[in-house]
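Re: the 282-residue chain
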Amino acid sequence: MDAAVGRRGLVVAVLVVLAAGMVTGIPSSAPAGAAATVECPSPAPPPTVIMTVGDSITDGIIIDQTPTAGYRAELGRLLTAACVPHTLVNAALNGSPCTYWTDRLAGLMATHRPDVVLLACGTNDRLDDKTPEQVAAWEGMYRALLTTALSADPDVLVYPAWVQYSTGVRGSGCPSWQGSSPAWQPGYEAIVNDRVHRAFAPLPESGHRIPAVADYQVIPEGYLDACGVHPTPGGYDVMGRLAYNTIAPRLGVPQAPLPCGLTGRRPGALTRDWTPCQRMVL
């Protein structure tokens, strides 16, 4: 089994056989949140420090602007179920663009000394009305964010994210959303995701200390709120599983099951309509 060696010489490995219904699968008859009992190794290794950086979607905001644990609740549950000691540090701010973190990320890295950084900004960075020079500058800014995180420690792992597509619905109870972007059309989010890809792809750490990208584009409309922007509680569970599966290979733990209907969107590509199907039983 693969092991992840972190900044502290941390080696995380699952030395137990996970029972069916824990991480490798959840039967459709299982109650919500069902988990089998697993005996974890003792003594436990030092916790893996995971820092989440982003906007309201990372912060866990739902439609009435109520803060929640967001996707960290499901991410933490899965890590606990997989016997991975962990500490989750949330560095997110409602409404923040990626540029908000340029003067703050170095300090956050020094303060919290994370082993893993999940960077999911860009939803508030509208690029479709910018000049080519401005878009190129945004790409450079995002690359600088990645470099800042990577340079803080030689062993830290950084996972950027494709931002999800909003439906941009306007109506009762919905804030004014400037980035109207139907999920079946490329909009400003597609430009953001394209530039995220351009930012990390040429870096020498890509594929090594930037092992993968958390693909939140695949979250379909059925898991977004009435405004088509923030995930529903169930959507945050899906997001948590996507985050978990992104980092799972380097932690040496099994993948978690995902609901059907997730589409493999990629930067700059037209996307197909989501075909509704039975939702995941959590």
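The two ends are 27 Å apart (CA to CA).
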